[in-house]
Write a structure and sequence with these properties.
With about 625 residues, the chain is of the alpha+beta class. A nine-stranded mixed β-sheet has the order 6-5-13-12-11-7-8-9-14, with helices on both faces. It has a three-stranded antiparallel β-sheet with strand order 1-2-4, covered by helices on one side. A hairpin with an 8-residue loop joins strand 5 (about 140-145) and strand 6 (about 155).
Length: about 625
């Protein structure tokens, strides 16, 4: 969800470009829940291949000049996106063929179909491009998550640790993120050494998008604070590249590059984040100089050219100063100016209140799949520990869900399948029927049995009735549908439901049995499992009926009330987004959250500590 708003919807909802007979496209869902395929690989005839940070997406094309007004960067909407810094490496020969094998394996795992290997690989290297190196060995390092029968691959993590440990003079790093605890430990260990290397990091001043900034920037701030605490010899600098004439000055940095001295270079897709070490699929290429002066010189040239690019100077000037000072930090300090291009120090700090409300990195930047019950535990137990993060994060999730729904109506095929005119047509036909409320409640019952998305039913009801009747019908429909499936779950029994819904859902409901109404509410607010399956499993593991009903009401109310009472603003937001409609929706939802919080306090006050006992249901759940 954190990254959803910066992703393009084209692969999902505009398949027309795929219709050419020689274009084959497939969405690859062969990964853990919440993970992504993050490697960026292009292979041409097993003869030339490209690996790096560059996504084939809008706003990513650029040149080292990074001119803010470069019209060649124009996107399909006619806008000129802001400059974007990235690094990619092109290779040929055996390494290109090996990357072709990786691409074919990926296609086979996603589609079950084999792609033939090119039999006669001609020289495809472009004549206009002079290679920096020839006849050298290139290593491939990967991250593959543990998933299905795959035990996982953590080559990237190991290579990060080894290359950081091997550096003697300096580490030059460009990366999009800085949140990995493991890599942070490796960097902090080198900073504590009296004769350790200088560490220069080039990164964006802030993440793109308010949600990413309010989460991953917090994790970055925590890690940078750790590094600064370890930096007793003042050998750490964190910079962002500044461009004159750009609105926000500091440029977006998307590259994933590490250079250790003149001995080691890695370029690829892996961020300095937990996800890139064990959760997402990644691919990096690496070069080691050894005793080869040709490779040493090429690594020096690349680092110097990147610094010259950021500082608005010539690579030769960087090389000359570095030879004099023997210090990356001193060289950068001498070349920093107030001109059009320079490197500015990044503070990386975030407001204290924001830091307090964001959970640990394991939740937002996981190394491996996070079980749904762990998510629920974070959101529920944070309140029991006296933290406010649970309530604030639940509120953020509701806001995100509402705006994601508005975005889906506007920019995806959902608007074609069930558009606003269609819903209004349904509404008109229902309003003329005296038995309409019964039909609506029946639809909720039927939808629960068939695992139909309950949100669509709530939206349809909001269009069919005036606000108060719509809210009552939706809440009653949700509750009756939930109770009906809860009863079926009790009749089927734990073994049958677990066989149908899976052990993970059973473990989540074990948590619900232990923590009661707030856990049920959290399950309703978070998309961790289908609504209908949660109802079945809750009945099967004997979740206390009162907790189940109260929790369902508490968790469903914000969405029901929000969609029902503010359908006109929602329609305006979908059709004609503006600052006013955004403010109205946000204010309304914040008021609803305050109401829910007050209800929660009232409900908690009715439970006397002296009357809290372990229920048979909780004991049964513990034994499962």
């Amino acid at each position: 969800m954190i990254f959803a708003l910066e992703r393009e919807v084209l692969p999902f909802f505009a398949p027309g470009w795929q219709r050419h007979s020689r274009v084959h496209f497939h969405m690859d869902g062969d990964h853990p829940v919440g993970a992504s395929h993050h490697e960026k690989i292009v292979v041409v005839d097993d003869a030339v291949a490209f690996v790096g940070g560059l996504d084939l997406a809008r706003g990513r094309w650029d040149t080292p000049d990074h001119r803010p007004d470069d019209i060649r960067r124009v996107d399909f909407n006619g806008a000129v996106p802001t400059p974007h810094h990235d690094v990619q490496i092109g290779v040929s020969g055996e390494i290109a063929a090996a990357l072709g094998d990786i691409a074919r394996q990926r296609w086979w795992s996603a589609t079950g179909r084999r792609v033939r290997v090119p039999t006669h690989a001609a020289d495809r290297w472009p004549a206009s491009v002079t290679p920096d190196l020839t006849d050298v060995k290139v290593a491939i390092s990967r991250t593959e998550p543990q998933y299905g029968g795959n035990k996982g691959t953590r080559e990237i993590e190991k290579l990060f640790q080894d290359s950081i440990a091997a550096a003697r003079h300096w580490l030059y790093i460009e990366n999009q993120y800085l949140s990995s605890a493991i890599i942070g430990d490796a960097l902090a260990s080198r900073l504590r050494e009296a004769t350790g290397p200088e560490i220069v990091v080039v990164i964006s001043q802030a993440s793109q998008g308010w949600l990413e900034g309010a989460t991953l920037d917090v994790l970055r701030a925590r890690l940078v604070n750790r590094l600064r605490d370890a930096d007793r010899y003042r050998r750490l600098r964190v910079f962002c590249p500044v461009i004159e004439g750009q609105a926000k000055n500091c440029m977006s940095v998307h590259s994933k590059l590490l250079i250790a001295d003149d001995q080691f270079l890695r370029i690829g897709s892996a961020n300095i984040s937990n996800r890139s070490l064990g959760f997402d699929s990644e691919c990096d290429l690496a070069l080691e100089a050894g005793e080869n002066p040709q490779i040493e010189q090429a690594i020096d040239r690349l680092r110097n050219s990147l610094l010259a690019e950021h500082l608005g100077t010539a690579p030769e000037k960087v090389a000359g100063l570095l030879a004099e000072t023997h210090s990356l930090i001193a060289t950068i300090r001498a070349l920093r100016t107030n001109g059009a291009r320079t490197l500015e120090l990044v503070d990386c700090s975030v407001p204290q209140w924001l830091d307090q409300m964001i959970p640990e990195s394991a939740m937002l930047d996981p190394e491996s799949a996070v079980a749904p019950e762990k998510l629920i535990e974070e959101f529920v137990l944070s309140d029991e520990r006296g933290s406010s993060s649970g309530a604030l994060l639940r509120g953020a999730l509701i806001l995100i869900a509402m705006f994601a729904l508005a975005a889906a109506w506007r920019w995806t095929s959902l608007g074609d399948l069930v558009d606003l005119n269609t819903l209004e047509g349904w509404a008109a036909s229902l309003q003329e029927n005296n038995a309409a409320p019964l039909w609506v409640i029946g639809a909720f019952l039927l939808g629960g049995i068939t695992v139909f998305p309950v949100t669509i039913l709530i939206i349809a009801t909001a269009f069919a009735f005036d606000p108060w009747p719509a809210m009552l019908c939706s809440l009653l429909g949700c509750l009756l549908s939930a109770i009906f499936l809860y009863a079926i779950g009790r009749q089927l029994g734990r073994k049958n439901v677990v066989r149908f819904a899976g052990k993970r859902l059973n473990r989540m409901n074990r948590l619900i049995a232990k923590h009661g109404v707030l856990a049920v509410a959290a399950v309703r607010m978070m998309p961790v499992a289908p609504y209908s399956l949660v109802n079945l499993a809750a009945g099967a593991v004997r979740v206390p009926f009162r907790d189940f009903v109260y929790g369902t009401f508490l968790g469903m109310s914000p969405g029901v009330v929000g969609i029902t009472f503010f359908q006109n603003q929602l329609k305006d937001m979908i059709r004609n987004p503006s600052a006013l409609t955004l403010i109205v929706l946000t204010s309304s939802l914040c008021l609803m959250l305050l109401g829910i919080f007050a209800f929660r306090r009232w409900f908690a006050g009715r439970q006397s500590p002296g009357r809290q006992k372990t229920s048979p249901a909780a004991r049964t759940a513990e034994s499962l």
